[in-house]
Amino acid sequence: MTEGGSARAPTALLVLADSLAFHGPERAEPADDPRLWPNIAATALGARTELVAGAGWTARHAWHALTHDPRAWAAVPHARALVLGVGGMDALPSPLPTALRELIPVLRPPSLRRVVRDGYLRAQPELARAFARLPGGGPVALPPWLTVAHLERCRAAVTALRPGLTVVAALPAPHRAAIYGGVHPGRAAAERATRRWAAETGVRVLDVPTLVGDHVLGGHGNPDGMHWGWSAHAAVGAAVAELIDTGRA
Question: Which of 86, 106, 155, 202 is the most exposed place for a label (fewest CB within 10 A)?
Fold first, then answer.
């Protein structure tokens, strides 16, 4: 409370995200780089950014961070809005079950880890293309129902502490990444599930494909075919701020 007895205005934009929130056209950048979309959005709102993010994060990682990272707990009382910038990695092809793939970095000895990792990375593009020809497009990192379940856990946990807080969720971004064989059969189903959940819960939808599709698919972003150039960050940041400020897409 202030001296006059009124509550302080919220000062933070709490963002749970994958590497699209901190990776630019050449490399991963420091979280306070003003060109990144969370910082563009926060600046437009007169707020600061509380970014809790990691490379390769799915909605399940975001839920784990929200329940285990004290930075996130500290930001909730000060949040102007919650942005769920995860779900895109969930929809990517995953020829190897996610639980097994995530064990590769902890294999020992290091020589075995390198052999397994390099072999998987060589095989993944062709396996992704092969699975994409199957009915349903083959396995993804997380099925849409599980993505939505973890997004809902994040939303429910934060809004239980901050009723009425604005929540924004990002639709899965497009990619043209060679590492995934240039295929993305799971994206449409993930988008449908996210839109359905958002409509049921009052979550505002950030239409990432519309904002960055031409940029990414036209080869104007990072050479990896996944991450964005600065113009895409600017468009997404502005759109996030507008959703939070006005509720309009």
Answer: 106
Q: Is the peptide bond before 135 cis (omega within 30 degrees of 0)?
A: no
**CATH fold label, 12-92+140-246:** Rossmann fold (3.40.50)
CB 151 within 8 A of CB 84: yes
Q: Which residues belong to CATH 3.40.50.1110 in the chain?
A: 12-92+140-246
Nearest Cα neighbor of 29 from 226, 213, 215, 228 is: 228
pTM: 0.92
E strands of 7-159, at which residues? 12-17, 48-53, 79-85
Which tens digits make up the pLDDT trace of 98-139? 888 889 999 999 999 999 999 999 999 999 999 899 888 999
Q: Where do we find the tokens 């399940």?
A: 60
Q: What is the distance between the alpha carbons of residues 25 and 198, in angstroms, rounded to a whole number? A: 30
